[in-house]
Amino acid sequence: MKIAMLSTGEEVLHGDIVDTNAAWLSSLFYQHGFGLTKRSTVGDKQSSLIEEFLMLSFNNDVVIVNGGLGPTTDDMSAAAAAKAADCKLVLFKDWLAHLEAMYARRGIPMPDSNLKQAMLPETAQIVDNPIGTACGFKMLINDAVFYFTPGVPSEFKLMAETQILPDLKKLFPEVESASCSRIYTFGLSESGISDKLDQMKLPPGYELGYRSYLPFIEVKLFGPSQH
After folding, report:
1. Cβ proximity of 33 and 177 under 8 Å
2. Fewer beta carbons within 10 angstroms: which end of the chain, N or C?
3. What pTM did the predictor assign?
4. Per DSSP, what are the bridge partners of residue 149?
5. Which SUPFAM superfamilies does the record match to this protein (predicted)?
């Protein structure tokens, strides 16, 4: 199974903000057996988003898209997803009601621009965001399952932990949780350690990794957690 994450936004692409969401999701998914096979970043242009969605849809089983669900003109993820899937944007009345209720609780009128956040691809299924205005959603683009998520870290993490990860476990019940054991060595170079350890025959599902962590070399053993 191949799982990709796509981070969107000019501010991420140009380094104005550090993409902590991607690192956090990589760790969470790996622990549960859904290790990412690709991470990439794209700006806010609709044409670039469509191109990236299509490329990822042909080469992955699952794609997590982060960002671009806000109310402003540079938030283009929903519109680009609709074009990539060759479907229309439609008003999701349930999410509009959620937005109106949220603003009513605050005692302020909902800005007209927020209506955009209830316009989703017609084939989408809502992924709830109980603490924000950006509506997450799930849909197919070609044969890949796409999850579209907000860029706000607190909203993204809640959605990933409580909705996306449980959904993936239902879709792929055969996936096993993974673990990583680490040891730190001193005195041999990274290549010297690799030459010795790579001669070992590991059981299926296990692999070694190395990282220079001066003055140490970190050796990592990846494998199923229940073993």
Report:
1. yes
2. C
3. 0.85
4. 66
5. Molybdenum cofactor biosynthesis proteins
Collect all residues with Cβ–Cβ distance below 8 Å to 27 and sequence separation of at least 6: none
9: nearest Cα among 26, 17, 78: 17
Q: Are 177 and 31 in contact (CB under 8 A)?
A: yes
8 phi/psi in degrees, rounded to 5: -120, 155
Q: How many angstroms from the chain centroid is the CA of residue 32?
A: 14
What's the Rg (C-alpha) of the chain? Answer: 20
For 81, counting Cβ atoms within 10 Å of its Cβ (0-12 exposed, 13-18 middle, 19+ buried), the class is: buried
CATH topology of domain 3-171: Molybdenum Cofactor Biosythetic Enzyme; Chain A (3.40.980)
Beta carbons of 189 and 217 less than 8 angstroms apart: yes
Task: Assign 1 to helix, strand or coil.
Answer: coil
Query: How far apart (Å, rounded) are the C-alpha atoms in residues 167 and 24?
Result: 18
**Sequence-ordered strand ranges (E) for the chain:** 3-8, 38-42, 62-66, 89-91, 119-121, 125-127, 136-141, 144-149, 178-185, 207-213, 216-224
Q: How many CB atoms lie within 10 A of CB 212?
A: 10
Tell me which amino acid residue 176 is. E
Domain ranges of the chain: 3-171, 178-224
The two tokens of residue 66 are: 């982060």
